[in-house]
Amino acid sequence: xxxxGLWEHKNMYPKQLSxxxxxxxxxxxxxxxAQHIVCLDEPYSGLDVSMIQRVSxxxxxxxxxxxxxxxxxxxxxxxxxxxxCDTIALLGSDKDISGNIIPGSTINPGxxxxxxxxxxxxxxxxxxxxxxxDFCNLITYRVKSL
Length: 146
Description:
This protein is of the alpha+beta class. It has a single domain, classed as 3-Layer(aba) Sandwich (Rossmann fold). The protein is 35% helix and 17% strand. It has four helices and four strands. The protein has a two-stranded parallel ribbon. A two-stranded antiparallel sheet has the order 3-4. Strand 1, helix 2 (49-63) and strand 2 (70-74) form a beta-alpha-beta unit. The termini are far apart.
């Protein structure tokens, strides 16, 4: 519990926790109940700006506790998600020959990015890197065009 910054709240009921504390509890449960594969859906939602960095560090450090751990993050928070990932895949809709959207979503091979190969993985203070900022802008543009 201390690793997740929740030790002081251990005797509280869920209704007594803030949104951010509930979110951290949910992430902690995901890691504690997982068999090396953790799926986090919108882990930054409900968090204030000061807590997002702390939660990112918590996810990264917990994921790195065992080399077998894999974390799948589904998020609209592009910049914070990219800062802790080593691979990303953009989910989008395909279009037919006429340009009409085909129902359902897919991951096109052209929308998979290896952040290790791009030298964006496993760096501290990545958000200060101008090339990373440009990459985040590119990904944001790609997401909008999907």
